[in-house]
Design goal:
The complex is a heterodimer.
Chain A (H helix, E strand, L loop, with lengths): L5 H4 L1 H11 L6 E3 H8 L3 H13 L3 E8 L2 E8 L1 H18 L1 H4 L1
Antiparallel strand pairs in A: 1-3, 2-3
Chain B lengths: L6 H23 L4 H21 L4 H23 L2 E2 L4 H21 L7 H25 L3 H19 L5 H23 L10
Helix pairs in contact in B: 2-3, 2-7, 4-5, 5-6, 6-7
């Protein structure tokens, strides 16, 4: 049976992973854009991203667009696997028969 | 850990996952190539109207509109890549560059670049319209996006048909069977195409 992932389990991090998991493999998303889509604050999103990055679930790339600093985010292959496993575990809780 | 989580809470978390997915899918849909198709489809439509009414006299306007279209495309690319971006595939850019460079050099080398009479003007126009639709085919093949490949192939075929079979009504043909389909392809890409699939999609 799939196990819940303690890093992803926190609701905001789960939301972040769900959103990033929708990106096609080669794409990256801007920090500000993601923050707006998820309705999180700068500090809140930043803290959760750090946790997810440390777990190896996402890649953070800091760059400049013109003179403006920009942060782009992308989910890693490990992140996708962990997210899928976590969602499978959640699904198993609400429908144990289906997951067997 | 799974044993400790109540069913209700698991359901709420799955609902939040679903909402995040929906929000992101909507966002991603807004970042497809439809804006380019709308801009260039509209420009092609104006080309057709200008060609129909002004004949060879349309050339300076066509050139000016082509420059405006390139500027608009550059702006669209800049805005979109500041929010959702993919690393630039330099090989693809080089391939498109080589194709366009060759496409612009070839008529000069062959000495067939002539816009001084109506039939050759139409021919040169159709040639460049065909040339600029080829990157769609190339992108379709390169990135395995069959929709782009088919859009490129069908519009190419339509331009060729207009030139070779319906040359007497070329401008009308071009408007109806090349410009408008390009605009409609943009709508298809934006609102109807479901291509965001990866292993996690259920």
């Amino acid at each position: 049976m799939a196990e819940l992932d303690s890093v992803i389990h926190q609701p905001a991090r789960l939301q972040i992973m769900a959103a990033l998991n929708e990106l096609p493999p080669s794409k990256e998303i801007d920090f500000t854009f993601l923050r707006t889509k998820l309705g999180l604050t700068d500090g809140n999103l930043g803290a959760h991203l750090l946790t997810l990055e440390q777990a190896g679930y996402l890649r953070v790339k800091k760059t400049f667009v013109g003179r403006r600093p920009k942060t782009f985010l992308a989910i890693t292959a490990d992140g996708r696997r962990a997210f899928d496993t976590h969602v499978a575990a959640l699904t198993a809780i609400i429908s144990p028969k289906r997951s067997k | 850990m799974s044993d400790e989580l109540p069913e209700v809470q698991a359901a709420q978390l799955l609902e939040s996952v679903r909402q995040s997915r929906v929000a992101m899918r909507r966002a991603i849909r807004a970042y497809r190539g439809h804006w380019y198709m709308w801009v260039w489809g509209l420009i092609w439509l104006i080309y057709a109207v200008l060609g129909y009414y002004l004949d060879i006299g349309a050339l300076p306007y066509i050139n000016a509109l082509a420059i405006a279209g390139l500027v608009a495309s550059f702006l669209i690319a800049s805005i979109q890549s500041s929010q959702i971006r993919a690393p630039i595939d330099r090989r693809f850019v080089a391939a498109v560059g080589a194709l366009l460079l060759f496409g612009y050099l070839a008529p000069g080398i062959l000495g067939v670049y002539d816009t001084t009479s109506t039939p050759t003007f139409v021919r040169v126009f159709a040639y460049f319209a065909l040339l600029w639709i080829q990157p769609y085919i190339l992108a379709g093949l390169w990135f395995r996006i069959s929709t782009l490949l088919w859009i490129g192939l069908l519009i190419s075929l339509s331009i060729l048909l207009g030139l070779l079979v319906f040359s007497a009504i070329f401008w009308v043909w071009f408007a109806i069977f090349a410009a408008i389909p390009l605009i409609l392809s943009g709508f298809y890409l934006r609102y109807f195409l479901h291509c965001n699939s990866h292993p996690s999609d259920g």
